[in-house]
Amino acid sequence: MPLSVFDLFTVGIGPSSSHTVGPMRAGSSFIHLLGDALGSVADLRVDVFGSLAATGAGHGTFDAILIGLEGCRPDLIEANELTARRTRMSETGTIILGDSTGNGVEIALTEDDMVKRPLTVLPRHTNALTITAFDSTGQTLAEETYYSVGGGFVTSETEFLEKEKSAEAGAEDGPESSEFAVADSVVEAELESYSEELPYPFHSGAELLERCRENDMSIAEIMHANELSMWDEDEIRHGLLHIYSVMEECASASLDRSGYLPGGLKVRRRAHDWYLKLKAEDPNHDPGYYLEWVNLIAMAVNEENASGGRVVTAPTNGAAGIIPAVLHYALNYVPSVAEGGEAAKHRAIIDFLLTAAAIGVLYKERASISGAEVGCQGEVGSASSMAAGGLAAVMGGTPEQVENAAEIAMEHNLGLTCDPISGLVQVPCIERNAIAAGKAINASRMALWGDGQHRVSLDEVIETMRQTGADMSSKYKETALGGLAVNVVEC
Ligand code: SF4
Fold first, then answer.
1. Whole-prediction pTM
2. Pocket test for ligand 1, best of 429, 430, 474 (most atoms within 8 A of CB)
3. 57-107 pLDDT, tens per residue?
4. In the sheet where 140-150 sits, what is the strand order?
5. Which residues of the chain does CATH 3.30.1330.90 include?
6. Which end of the chain offers a freer environment for a tag, N or C, measured as fewer CB atoms within 10 Å?
Protein backbone atom coordinates (compact mmCIF):
# COMPACT_ATOMS: atom_id res chain seq x y z
CA MET A 1 0.00 0.00 0.00
CA PRO A 2 1.25 3.52 -0.70
CA LEU A 3 1.99 5.72 2.29
CA SER A 4 -0.93 7.86 3.40
CA VAL A 5 -1.04 11.09 5.38
CA PHE A 6 -2.68 8.91 8.06
CA ASP A 7 0.44 6.72 8.21
CA LEU A 8 2.66 9.74 8.80
CA PHE A 9 0.32 11.23 11.44
CA THR A 10 -1.07 8.64 13.84
CA VAL A 11 -2.45 8.92 17.35
CA GLY A 12 -0.35 7.09 19.88
CA ILE A 13 1.16 7.21 23.32
CA GLY A 14 4.50 8.50 24.50
CA PRO A 15 7.35 8.55 24.88
CA SER A 16 8.61 7.00 21.62
CA SER A 17 7.04 5.97 18.32
CA SER A 18 9.78 3.45 17.54
CA HIS A 19 10.38 2.25 21.10
CA THR A 20 6.85 2.40 22.58
CA VAL A 21 4.20 2.60 19.84
CA GLY A 22 5.93 0.18 17.43
CA PRO A 23 6.63 -2.50 20.08
CA MET A 24 3.02 -2.30 21.29
CA ARG A 25 1.84 -2.79 17.70
CA ALA A 26 4.23 -5.76 17.40
CA GLY A 27 2.70 -7.33 20.53
CA SER A 28 -0.86 -6.97 19.30
CA SER A 29 0.14 -8.17 15.82
CA PHE A 30 1.54 -11.37 17.36
CA ILE A 31 -1.82 -12.05 18.97
CA HIS A 32 -3.44 -11.90 15.52
CA LEU A 33 -0.76 -14.24 14.22
CA LEU A 34 -1.58 -16.76 16.95
CA GLY A 35 -5.24 -16.84 15.96
CA ASP A 36 -6.93 -20.02 17.23
CA ALA A 37 -3.67 -21.20 18.82
CA LEU A 38 -4.05 -18.49 21.46
CA GLY A 39 -5.95 -20.84 23.81
CA SER A 40 -3.05 -23.33 23.77
CA VAL A 41 -0.37 -20.86 24.84
CA ALA A 42 1.25 -21.87 28.13
CA ASP A 43 4.47 -19.88 28.00
CA LEU A 44 6.01 -16.98 26.16
CA ARG A 45 9.43 -15.56 25.44
CA VAL A 46 10.35 -12.14 24.06
CA ASP A 47 13.89 -11.44 22.81
CA VAL A 48 14.59 -7.72 22.45
CA PHE A 49 17.59 -6.62 20.39
CA GLY A 50 19.82 -3.61 19.70
CA SER A 51 18.56 -0.12 20.41
CA LEU A 52 15.20 -1.39 21.66
CA ALA A 53 16.99 -3.34 24.39
CA ALA A 54 19.57 -0.60 25.11
CA THR A 55 17.07 2.17 25.77
CA GLY A 56 13.92 0.13 26.33
CA ALA A 57 13.74 0.84 30.06
CA GLY A 58 13.63 4.61 29.50
CA HIS A 59 11.14 4.29 26.65
CA GLY A 60 8.72 1.89 28.34
CA THR A 61 9.42 -0.65 25.57
CA PHE A 62 9.12 -3.82 27.64
CA ASP A 63 5.76 -2.86 29.15
CA ALA A 64 4.57 -1.70 25.72
CA ILE A 65 5.27 -5.14 24.21
CA LEU A 66 3.40 -6.86 27.04
CA ILE A 67 0.46 -4.48 26.85
CA GLY A 68 0.35 -5.07 23.09
CA LEU A 69 0.28 -8.80 23.82
CA GLU A 70 -2.75 -8.14 26.00
CA GLY A 71 -4.45 -6.93 22.81
CA CYS A 72 -4.20 -3.17 23.38
CA ARG A 73 -3.58 -0.67 20.59
CA PRO A 74 -1.51 2.51 21.02
CA ASP A 75 -4.11 4.65 19.23
CA LEU A 76 -6.91 3.58 21.58
CA ILE A 77 -5.38 2.99 25.00
CA GLU A 78 -5.71 5.77 27.57
CA ALA A 79 -2.81 6.75 29.82
CA ASN A 80 -4.67 5.66 33.00
CA GLU A 81 -5.41 2.22 31.48
CA LEU A 82 -1.72 1.84 30.69
CA THR A 83 -0.84 2.57 34.29
CA ALA A 84 -3.49 0.16 35.59
CA ARG A 85 -2.25 -2.66 33.35
CA ARG A 86 1.38 -2.06 34.34
CA THR A 87 0.43 -2.14 38.02
CA ARG A 88 -1.62 -5.34 37.67
CA MET A 89 1.18 -7.10 35.75
CA SER A 90 3.80 -6.21 38.31
CA GLU A 91 1.54 -7.15 41.26
CA THR A 92 0.32 -10.48 39.85
CA GLY A 93 3.38 -11.46 37.80
CA THR A 94 1.06 -12.44 34.94
CA ILE A 95 -0.25 -11.07 31.67
CA ILE A 96 -3.60 -11.75 30.06
CA LEU A 97 -2.77 -12.61 26.48
CA GLY A 98 -4.95 -11.51 23.69
CA ASP A 99 -7.93 -9.70 25.01
CA SER A 100 -7.91 -6.06 25.89
CA THR A 101 -11.08 -6.58 27.96
CA GLY A 102 -9.19 -8.92 30.27
CA ASN A 103 -10.83 -12.19 29.09
CA GLY A 104 -7.83 -13.72 27.36
CA VAL A 105 -5.36 -16.38 28.43
CA GLU A 106 -3.53 -15.65 31.66
CA ILE A 107 0.07 -16.77 31.81
CA ALA A 108 2.80 -16.31 34.37
CA LEU A 109 5.66 -14.02 33.54
CA THR A 110 9.21 -14.30 34.85
CA GLU A 111 12.37 -12.25 34.32
CA ASP A 112 13.60 -14.95 31.89
CA ASP A 113 10.64 -14.38 29.59
CA MET A 114 11.93 -10.94 28.49
CA VAL A 115 15.50 -11.39 27.22
CA LYS A 116 17.37 -8.14 26.56
CA ARG A 117 20.18 -8.26 24.00
CA PRO A 118 21.44 -4.68 23.55
CA LEU A 119 24.70 -5.78 21.91
CA THR A 120 23.02 -7.96 19.30
CA VAL A 121 21.87 -6.04 16.25
CA LEU A 122 19.84 -8.03 13.73
CA PRO A 123 20.89 -7.41 10.11
CA ARG A 124 17.67 -5.79 8.96
CA HIS A 125 17.27 -3.16 11.70
CA THR A 126 18.57 -2.32 15.16
CA ASN A 127 15.03 -2.08 16.60
CA ALA A 128 14.06 -5.75 16.59
CA LEU A 129 12.15 -8.14 18.81
CA THR A 130 11.27 -11.81 18.48
CA ILE A 131 8.19 -13.21 20.19
CA THR A 132 7.81 -16.96 20.68
CA ALA A 133 4.77 -18.75 22.12
CA PHE A 134 4.95 -22.29 23.52
CA ASP A 135 2.31 -24.84 24.45
CA SER A 136 2.24 -26.82 27.71
CA THR A 137 4.71 -29.39 26.33
CA GLY A 138 7.24 -26.72 25.39
CA GLN A 139 6.55 -26.98 21.64
CA THR A 140 6.68 -23.73 19.69
CA LEU A 141 3.22 -22.62 18.61
CA ALA A 142 4.28 -19.46 16.78
CA GLU A 143 7.35 -17.27 16.41
CA GLU A 144 7.82 -13.96 14.64
CA THR A 145 10.46 -11.25 14.50
CA TYR A 146 9.28 -7.65 14.26
CA TYR A 147 11.25 -4.55 13.27
CA SER A 148 10.14 -1.19 14.59
CA VAL A 149 11.46 0.92 11.75
CA GLY A 150 10.55 4.40 12.98
CA GLY A 151 7.43 6.53 13.34
CA GLY A 152 5.50 3.58 14.83
CA PHE A 153 5.82 1.58 11.59
CA VAL A 154 6.38 -2.14 12.16
CA THR A 155 7.42 -4.76 9.62
CA SER A 156 7.67 -8.46 10.38
CA GLU A 157 10.35 -10.85 9.14
CA THR A 158 7.64 -12.68 7.19
CA GLU A 159 6.69 -9.46 5.40
CA PHE A 160 10.33 -8.74 4.60
CA LEU A 161 10.77 -12.24 3.17
CA GLU A 162 7.61 -11.94 1.07
CA LYS A 163 8.77 -8.59 -0.35
CA GLU A 164 12.20 -10.02 -1.09
CA LYS A 165 10.64 -12.99 -2.82
CA SER A 166 8.49 -10.84 -5.07
CA ALA A 167 11.41 -8.45 -5.71
CA GLU A 168 13.67 -11.37 -6.67
CA ALA A 169 10.97 -12.78 -8.92
CA GLY A 170 10.66 -9.41 -10.67
CA ALA A 171 14.40 -8.72 -10.88
CA GLU A 172 15.59 -10.21 -14.13
CA ASP A 173 18.80 -8.21 -14.35
CA GLY A 174 21.57 -7.48 -11.88
CA PRO A 175 23.64 -9.44 -9.36
CA GLU A 176 21.20 -11.91 -7.82
CA SER A 177 23.24 -12.91 -4.81
CA SER A 178 24.10 -9.44 -3.54
CA GLU A 179 22.35 -8.51 -0.30
CA PHE A 180 22.26 -4.87 -1.43
CA ALA A 181 20.86 -5.81 -4.82
CA VAL A 182 18.01 -7.60 -3.03
CA ALA A 183 17.43 -4.63 -0.71
CA ASP A 184 17.39 -2.24 -3.68
CA SER A 185 14.99 -4.51 -5.53
CA VAL A 186 12.65 -4.45 -2.52
CA VAL A 187 12.65 -0.65 -2.58
CA GLU A 188 12.12 -0.64 -6.35
CA ALA A 189 9.25 -3.11 -6.02
CA GLU A 190 7.63 -0.91 -3.37
CA LEU A 191 8.02 2.16 -5.55
CA GLU A 192 6.55 0.28 -8.51
CA SER A 193 3.46 -0.71 -6.55
CA TYR A 194 3.26 2.89 -5.35
CA SER A 195 3.12 4.13 -8.92
CA GLU A 196 0.48 1.60 -9.89
CA GLU A 197 -1.95 2.58 -7.16
CA LEU A 198 -1.90 6.39 -7.20
CA PRO A 199 -3.15 8.93 -9.75
CA TYR A 200 -0.13 11.20 -9.21
CA PRO A 201 2.76 8.96 -8.16
CA PHE A 202 6.02 10.55 -7.05
CA HIS A 203 9.22 8.88 -5.92
CA SER A 204 11.33 11.98 -5.34
CA GLY A 205 11.07 15.70 -4.73
CA ALA A 206 11.84 16.27 -8.41
CA GLU A 207 8.96 14.02 -9.47
CA LEU A 208 6.63 15.68 -6.97
CA LEU A 209 7.42 19.08 -8.50
CA GLU A 210 6.98 17.62 -11.97
CA ARG A 211 3.48 16.31 -11.07
CA CYS A 212 2.62 19.80 -9.75
CA ARG A 213 3.84 21.54 -12.91
CA GLU A 214 2.26 19.21 -15.45
CA ASN A 215 -1.12 19.30 -13.68
CA ASP A 216 -1.00 22.88 -12.40
CA MET A 217 -1.63 21.64 -8.86
CA SER A 218 -0.13 22.43 -5.46
CA ILE A 219 1.68 19.78 -3.42
CA ALA A 220 -1.34 19.59 -1.08
CA GLU A 221 -3.63 19.02 -4.09
CA ILE A 222 -1.39 16.23 -5.42
CA MET A 223 -1.34 14.54 -2.02
CA HIS A 224 -5.09 15.02 -1.61
CA ALA A 225 -5.80 13.45 -5.02
CA ASN A 226 -3.61 10.49 -4.08
CA GLU A 227 -5.37 10.14 -0.71
CA LEU A 228 -8.71 9.93 -2.55
CA SER A 229 -7.62 6.56 -3.88
CA MET A 230 -7.58 5.32 -0.26
CA TRP A 231 -10.25 7.38 1.54
CA ASP A 232 -13.30 9.42 0.65
CA GLU A 233 -13.43 13.21 0.85
CA ASP A 234 -15.14 13.26 4.26
CA GLU A 235 -12.71 10.78 5.77
CA ILE A 236 -9.76 12.89 4.65
CA ARG A 237 -11.20 16.17 5.92
CA HIS A 238 -12.46 14.83 9.24
CA GLY A 239 -9.40 12.66 9.73
CA LEU A 240 -7.03 15.59 9.31
CA LEU A 241 -9.07 17.90 11.53
CA HIS A 242 -9.17 15.12 14.12
CA ILE A 243 -5.38 14.78 13.95
CA TYR A 244 -5.10 18.50 14.62
CA SER A 245 -7.60 18.35 17.50
CA VAL A 246 -5.51 15.60 19.17
CA MET A 247 -2.41 17.80 18.78
CA GLU A 248 -4.28 20.69 20.40
CA GLU A 249 -5.65 18.53 23.24
CA CYS A 250 -2.17 17.16 23.86
CA ALA A 251 -0.68 20.65 24.25
CA SER A 252 -3.51 21.94 26.40
CA ALA A 253 -3.47 18.86 28.69
CA SER A 254 0.23 19.39 29.18
CA LEU A 255 -0.17 23.10 29.99
CA ASP A 256 -2.32 22.06 32.96
CA ARG A 257 0.33 19.81 34.46
CA SER A 258 3.28 20.74 36.62
CA GLY A 259 5.91 18.84 38.59
CA TYR A 260 8.58 16.44 37.36
CA LEU A 261 8.65 14.14 34.36
CA PRO A 262 8.84 10.40 35.10
CA GLY A 263 12.05 8.38 34.79
CA GLY A 264 14.23 9.66 37.62
CA LEU A 265 16.13 12.32 35.65
CA LYS A 266 14.47 15.05 37.69
CA VAL A 267 13.48 17.07 34.64
CA ARG A 268 10.89 19.64 35.65
CA ARG A 269 7.89 20.32 33.41
CA ARG A 270 8.34 23.93 32.31
CA ALA A 271 5.45 24.53 29.92
CA HIS A 272 2.86 25.11 32.67
CA ASP A 273 4.78 27.95 34.35
CA TRP A 274 5.82 29.47 31.03
CA TYR A 275 2.20 29.47 29.91
CA LEU A 276 1.01 31.38 32.97
CA LYS A 277 3.80 33.90 32.56
CA LEU A 278 3.30 34.29 28.81
CA LYS A 279 -0.48 34.67 29.11
CA ALA A 280 0.01 37.51 31.57
CA GLU A 281 2.72 39.21 29.51
CA ASP A 282 1.18 38.72 26.05
CA PRO A 283 -2.62 38.49 26.46
CA ASN A 284 -3.34 39.63 22.87
CA HIS A 285 -0.82 37.54 20.93
CA ASP A 286 1.46 40.38 19.91
CA PRO A 287 3.52 39.21 16.89
CA GLY A 288 6.68 40.15 18.80
CA TYR A 289 6.05 37.13 21.06
CA TYR A 290 5.48 34.55 18.32
CA LEU A 291 8.62 32.57 19.11
CA GLU A 292 7.72 32.28 22.80
CA TRP A 293 4.36 30.72 21.85
CA VAL A 294 5.97 28.40 19.31
CA ASN A 295 8.53 27.29 21.90
CA LEU A 296 5.78 26.79 24.45
CA ILE A 297 3.62 24.55 22.23
CA ALA A 298 6.61 22.43 21.16
CA MET A 299 7.73 21.95 24.76
CA ALA A 300 4.20 21.27 26.04
CA VAL A 301 3.66 18.50 23.47
CA ASN A 302 7.02 16.93 24.18
CA GLU A 303 6.57 17.08 27.94
CA GLU A 304 3.26 15.26 27.46
CA ASN A 305 5.02 12.72 25.25
CA ALA A 306 7.81 12.26 27.81
CA SER A 307 5.23 11.46 30.47
CA GLY A 308 3.58 8.75 28.35
CA GLY A 309 0.58 10.88 27.34
CA ARG A 310 -1.47 10.85 24.14
CA VAL A 311 0.30 12.47 21.20
CA VAL A 312 0.20 12.55 17.43
CA THR A 313 3.24 10.83 15.98
CA ALA A 314 4.48 13.50 13.57
CA PRO A 315 6.31 11.71 12.04
CA THR A 316 7.75 10.28 15.31
CA ASN A 317 6.95 10.80 18.97
CA GLY A 318 10.35 12.27 19.85
CA ALA A 319 9.70 14.96 17.23
CA ALA A 320 5.96 15.26 17.95
CA GLY A 321 6.07 18.90 19.10
CA ILE A 322 7.42 20.51 15.92
CA ILE A 323 4.43 20.27 13.60
CA PRO A 324 1.87 21.38 16.25
CA ALA A 325 4.10 24.34 17.15
CA VAL A 326 4.57 25.45 13.54
CA LEU A 327 0.86 24.90 12.88
CA HIS A 328 0.18 27.17 15.85
CA TYR A 329 2.28 29.80 14.11
CA ALA A 330 0.40 29.26 10.82
CA LEU A 331 -2.99 29.61 12.48
CA ASN A 332 -2.16 32.63 14.62
CA TYR A 333 0.49 34.65 12.81
CA VAL A 334 -0.13 34.19 9.07
CA PRO A 335 -2.55 37.10 8.51
CA SER A 336 -4.73 35.47 5.82
CA VAL A 337 -5.34 32.54 8.18
CA ALA A 338 -5.44 34.32 11.54
CA GLU A 339 -7.96 36.85 10.23
CA GLY A 340 -9.85 34.51 7.89
CA GLY A 341 -12.26 32.82 10.28
CA GLU A 342 -12.88 29.14 10.90
CA ALA A 343 -13.05 28.10 7.23
CA ALA A 344 -9.60 29.61 6.57
CA LYS A 345 -8.20 27.84 9.63
CA HIS A 346 -9.58 24.47 8.56
CA ARG A 347 -8.22 24.96 5.03
CA ALA A 348 -4.81 25.86 6.47
CA ILE A 349 -4.73 22.79 8.75
CA ILE A 350 -5.61 20.47 5.86
CA ASP A 351 -3.16 22.04 3.39
CA PHE A 352 -0.40 22.13 6.00
CA LEU A 353 -0.76 18.47 6.97
CA LEU A 354 -1.11 17.22 3.38
CA THR A 355 1.97 19.17 2.26
CA ALA A 356 3.99 18.07 5.29
CA ALA A 357 2.94 14.45 4.67
CA ALA A 358 4.05 14.58 1.00
CA ILE A 359 7.50 15.63 2.23
CA GLY A 360 7.39 13.00 4.99
CA VAL A 361 6.71 10.30 2.39
CA LEU A 362 9.99 11.25 0.68
CA TYR A 363 11.96 10.91 3.94
CA LYS A 364 10.32 7.61 4.80
CA GLU A 365 10.75 6.15 1.31
CA ARG A 366 14.20 7.51 0.42
CA ALA A 367 16.00 7.69 3.79
CA SER A 368 14.62 7.03 7.27
CA ILE A 369 12.63 8.70 10.03
CA SER A 370 14.17 6.44 12.69
CA GLY A 371 16.61 7.90 15.24
CA ALA A 372 17.99 4.40 15.75
CA GLU A 373 18.81 4.19 12.06
CA VAL A 374 20.05 7.69 11.12
CA GLY A 375 20.17 9.70 14.37
CA CYS A 376 18.01 12.64 15.36
CA GLN A 377 18.32 14.24 11.90
CA GLY A 378 15.83 11.55 10.79
CA GLU A 379 13.33 12.44 13.52
CA VAL A 380 13.63 16.11 14.44
CA GLY A 381 15.23 16.97 11.09
CA SER A 382 12.46 15.31 9.07
CA ALA A 383 9.74 16.91 11.22
CA SER A 384 11.37 20.34 10.86
CA SER A 385 11.56 19.89 7.09
CA MET A 386 7.94 18.70 6.88
CA ALA A 387 6.77 21.63 9.02
CA ALA A 388 8.74 24.12 6.93
CA GLY A 389 7.09 22.84 3.77
CA GLY A 390 3.63 22.87 5.36
CA LEU A 391 4.06 26.43 6.57
CA ALA A 392 5.42 27.65 3.22
CA ALA A 393 2.30 26.20 1.54
CA VAL A 394 -0.02 27.97 4.00
CA MET A 395 1.90 31.21 3.48
CA GLY A 396 1.08 30.98 -0.24
CA GLY A 397 4.35 29.51 -1.49
CA THR A 398 4.66 27.87 -4.90
CA PRO A 399 5.55 24.14 -4.97
CA GLU A 400 9.16 25.18 -5.70
CA GLN A 401 9.21 27.47 -2.64
CA VAL A 402 7.69 24.70 -0.52
CA GLU A 403 10.38 22.28 -1.69
CA ASN A 404 13.00 24.96 -0.98
CA ALA A 405 11.67 25.50 2.57
CA ALA A 406 11.76 21.75 3.28
CA GLU A 407 15.31 21.55 1.91
CA ILE A 408 16.60 24.50 3.98
CA ALA A 409 15.18 23.06 7.19
CA MET A 410 16.83 19.66 6.69
CA GLU A 411 20.10 21.13 5.43
CA HIS A 412 20.56 22.76 8.82
CA ASN A 413 19.63 19.68 10.80
CA LEU A 414 22.11 17.40 9.02
CA GLY A 415 24.32 15.40 11.35
CA LEU A 416 22.03 15.79 14.37
CA THR A 417 22.77 12.89 16.71
CA CYS A 418 20.43 10.99 19.00
CA ASP A 419 21.89 10.91 22.52
CA PRO A 420 19.02 11.02 25.03
CA ILE A 421 20.20 11.04 28.64
CA SER A 422 19.22 7.80 30.42
CA GLY A 423 17.47 6.76 27.21
CA LEU A 424 14.57 9.03 28.21
CA VAL A 425 12.93 11.19 25.55
CA GLN A 426 13.53 14.32 27.64
CA VAL A 427 17.01 15.81 27.28
CA PRO A 428 17.84 16.98 24.62
CA CYS A 429 14.55 16.04 22.94
CA ILE A 430 12.11 18.53 24.50
CA GLU A 431 14.09 21.71 23.85
CA ARG A 432 15.27 20.33 20.51
CA ASN A 433 11.68 20.34 19.26
CA ALA A 434 11.32 24.03 20.10
CA ILE A 435 14.58 24.89 18.34
CA ALA A 436 13.62 22.85 15.26
CA ALA A 437 10.19 24.52 15.11
CA GLY A 438 11.94 27.90 15.03
CA LYS A 439 14.23 26.64 12.26
CA ALA A 440 11.20 25.48 10.26
CA ILE A 441 9.59 28.93 10.47
CA ASN A 442 12.83 30.62 9.47
CA ALA A 443 13.30 28.18 6.56
CA SER A 444 9.78 28.95 5.26
CA ARG A 445 10.31 32.66 5.52
CA MET A 446 13.66 32.41 3.72
CA ALA A 447 12.14 30.30 0.96
CA LEU A 448 9.29 32.79 0.45
CA TRP A 449 11.80 35.60 -0.05
CA GLY A 450 13.24 33.66 -2.97
CA ASP A 451 11.67 32.48 -6.23
CA GLY A 452 12.00 28.74 -5.56
CA GLN A 453 15.27 28.41 -7.51
CA HIS A 454 18.05 27.13 -5.28
CA ARG A 455 21.40 25.34 -5.39
CA VAL A 456 20.73 22.21 -3.27
CA SER A 457 17.62 20.17 -4.03
CA LEU A 458 15.45 18.43 -1.44
CA ASP A 459 16.39 15.10 -3.00
CA GLU A 460 20.10 15.86 -2.56
CA VAL A 461 19.66 16.82 1.07
CA ILE A 462 17.54 13.72 1.80
CA GLU A 463 20.24 11.52 0.26
CA THR A 464 22.89 13.38 2.29
CA MET A 465 20.89 12.74 5.45
CA ARG A 466 20.65 9.04 4.59
CA GLN A 467 24.39 8.73 3.95
CA THR A 468 25.28 10.76 7.05
CA GLY A 469 23.07 8.45 9.09
CA ALA A 470 24.70 5.37 7.60
CA ASP A 471 28.16 6.75 8.50
CA MET A 472 27.14 7.82 12.02
CA SER A 473 28.54 5.78 14.90
CA SER A 474 25.91 3.62 16.58
CA LYS A 475 26.77 5.52 19.82
CA TYR A 476 24.70 8.38 18.41
CA LYS A 477 21.74 6.38 17.19
CA GLU A 478 19.35 6.01 20.12
CA THR A 479 21.58 3.78 22.20
CA ALA A 480 22.28 6.32 24.97
CA LEU A 481 25.97 5.31 24.68
CA GLY A 482 27.36 8.63 23.43
CA GLY A 483 27.00 12.41 23.46
CA LEU A 484 24.98 14.01 26.25
CA ALA A 485 23.98 10.57 27.46
CA VAL A 486 27.53 9.91 28.69
CA ASN A 487 28.70 13.44 29.50
CA VAL A 488 25.94 14.63 31.77
CA VAL A 489 26.08 13.37 35.32
CA GLU A 490 22.78 11.84 36.37
CA CYS A 491 21.84 12.57 39.95
S1 SF4 B 1 17.52 12.82 20.53
FE2 SF4 B 1 16.07 13.07 18.82
S3 SF4 B 1 15.89 11.03 17.86
FE4 SF4 B 1 16.82 10.78 19.89
S5 SF4 B 1 15.10 10.28 21.25
FE6 SF4 B 1 15.44 12.52 21.34
S7 SF4 B 1 14.08 13.37 19.77
FE8 SF4 B 1 14.22 11.17 19.34
1. 0.90
2. 429
3. 989 999 999 999 999 999 988 878 888 999 999 999 999 998 777 679 999
4. 114-117, 43-49, 128-134, 140-150, 153-156
5. 13-162
6. C
